[in-house]
Amino acid sequence: MKKASILMIIGPLFLLGLYVFPLWNIMLGAPQYPDPLGINIHINGIRDVKEFDIQNIDGLNHYIGMKTLPKPEEMWEFSTFPIVIGIMIFLGSLVGVLGLLGKVSYHWFLGWFVLMSVLGVLGMYDFNAWMVDYGTNLDPHAIMKLANPDGTPMTYKPPLFGHTKMLNFDVTSLPSTGAWLMFTGMMLTVAAFFAGRKHRGSGIEVSST
Question: DSSP assignment, residue 22?
């Protein structure tokens, strides 16, 4: 099961990219902003795509009563996610090493993938919940109070994935480099599982834990 175990060791290491590259990207474009404004969402904070983008976005949002974009110390996620990712990298690579030594079976590879997938879904749910609050919990004393055609207050939640129109802004929200590196790493662990199962099915492996 050597090939499968090596894949399992390498796969989680791709998650190290999350400490360098953004996980998600949100861009806002409008006629008055031919060069769109953007934010990159990292596991440890929110950063400008270009200098002053966050400052400009907060300035625009102030008029419609939206809160300023949070600083790292204002959200527990930005201190917790780096720790969780570090633990998962360690556990995944450890499982791969133990597989290489014949201490665990290939089923553990799938177990790591499932656990990482659950954490990913929970992270996306938390991210979406933050965006709902960010786009709907508006200051009642805002300078501009806009309403939908039916008279209900207008909300400004960015899309979790894809494109939407908010006032005269085109808002696009998509995975960024860190997310694709994480996805690649997770797919390598799935490949490790199937490689291990194929190896076991061939009858080469005599025993497993």
Answer: -
In the chain, where the domains are located: 2-201
Task: Determine the Cα angle at 110 with ends 103 and 102, to 5°.
Answer: 15
Polymer length of the chain:
209
The radius of gyration of the chain's CA atoms, rounded to the nearest angstrom, is: 22
Q: Which two tokens stand for residue 80?
A: 């917790």
Spatial CA neighbour of 174 closest among 56, 19, 20, 22: 22
Can you read off the two tokens belonging to residue 75?
Answer: 């959200």
Closest to 192 in 3D by CA, of 69, 86, 104, 131:
104
Buried/exposed 160-182: b ≥16 CB within 10 Å, e otherwise: eeeeeebeebebbbeebebbebb
Q: Which residue has the higher pLDDT, 77 or 202?
A: 77
Phi, psi of 81 (to 5 degrees): -60, -45
3-class state of residue 166 by DSSP: strand
Tell me the residue type at 68: T
Cα–Cα distance, 7 to 199 (Å, whole number): 13
Percent of the chain with pLDDT over 70: 96
Asked if pLDDT for residue 203 goes beyond 80, the answer is no
